[in-house]
Design goal:
The chain is an alpha/beta fold. The protein contains 5 helices and 12 strands. Strands 1, 2, 3, 4, 5, 6, 7, 8, 9, 10, 11 and 12 form a 12-stranded parallel beta sheet that branches. It is elongated.
Length: about 230
Amino acid sequence: ANSFENTKQNRISKYFSVLFKKRSKRARRKPQKESFTSQNAPTQASGGIRELPNQRPRLDPKDFQIVGCKGEVKVKASGTIKGQAFMIDDCEECDIFLVDHCAQVTVDNCRRCRLFIGPTEASVFLRDCTDCDVVVLCRQLRTRDCHRCQLSLLCRTRPIVESSTSITISCFDLNYKHFAAHMAGAKLSALTNFWSFVYDFTPRPGNFQLTSGAALAKDRLRARQRQAIMRGDG
């Protein structure tokens, strides 16, 4: 009985020993998997598979906001916004120019500023702004709690006034170097402009008035920055 048990134990030990050696050989022969990146991805020419696009660069939110400025000139040149959302907040006595197409723009709590807001695919919000001159091109404009502001406007839908007073609105009439490309990027047309079809959520006399072409967009902006925009330097 002892001899039978010893023989059985030896066979089991031999079996596992051989099995372990086979697995060790397979592990040594098996090549390591390479990490899959855009650099070693197979291309359409080499492997018949379309090459994956490179990852998008990470955006810094600080590049898409102007906050807390006083007496400064801020210009975002063509190609620096590229259809992203933008925020302007708590600025005073500033000249701010967004010379690019945007997704959406919010302007809050600005005082005595001159703003140029390039073609915007969605909405532009003006809130709590006082004594500002604004040139804006957008799909929708909404003003709330704004006072004594002058707007030169191209708007794809009816502009909205809410809880605002002494708002002066005229038709956009300015051209610049990248105008056509920015309008296309924002999916807007210069032939569609509802600037004069204002909808007032809080209708009262004196909330807004429309002006004729005498109030030119270029007159809203200071000469030095206006010339830079029209040359395409901005």
